[in-house]
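User: Second chain of the day. Same drill as before.
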Amino acid sequence: MVPAMASERLQKIMAACGIASRRKAEEIIAAGRVTLNGKVVTEQGTKADPDGDLICVDGVPLKKKERLLYFMLHKPKGYVTTVSDPERRPTVMELMKNCPERVYPVGRLDYASEGLLLMTNDGALAQKLMKAGSHAPKTYLVKISGKPDERALARLRAGIAIELEDGTRVKTSPAKIRLMEDGGKGSGEWRVASGERDNPWYEVVLIEGRNRQIRRMFQSVGFLVEKIKRVQLGPLVLDVEPGKFRALTVREVAKLKSL
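Assistant: Same format as last time:
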């Protein structure tokens, strides 16, 4: 009896799962090696629901085709961008408990930083975005203790040598940096108020994402970073509250993949 939820031919489902080509799958079915919800199936053209039915080949259930999911998460401060943490600090995975399937963070935001984080189970896209040569622009709002002069900013924009956690020194790629003036593109929360001239906010756009890169960059010219918030990743613009997430639209996913 064909299940009520039947939607695809068995041989097509088997081929999609990587078991064999459709023609070979038909031979496997004809040989009586396939069961559908516990019953042997030999009739060609039998249909099944790949998500709701139990399909086995030689007694082994087919691995269901994984749904690729993409989410924008607003990581708050005080969370680490890892699956687990030996120091028992809260991780971003705890914020994704209501996600229908397990997803993973792409890239990183350090413990004290906040902002846009991509969460997905699409390994191919994650690798593409994290490769050094991907050049996916990332936009940050950065609060500095003190105000760098134009000479220091010019050094940062051109690329500057920073020391990584393993002691090696690398030169950063060119960056875009501008002072966030009152009435600029940022919301009122991010505007530089007249009384905060010694602690200005800057918009920083990077095409790479080394560990604690922005903090290391400003430290190299003698200034400490007080706050960091990532507000854009490629075509994605942060639009959810801290600790919340939303699914990306089909169009957003397509733009990410075209980077």
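Helices lie at 10-16, 22-30, 123-130, 150-158, 213-220, 250-257.

User: Great, on to the next one.
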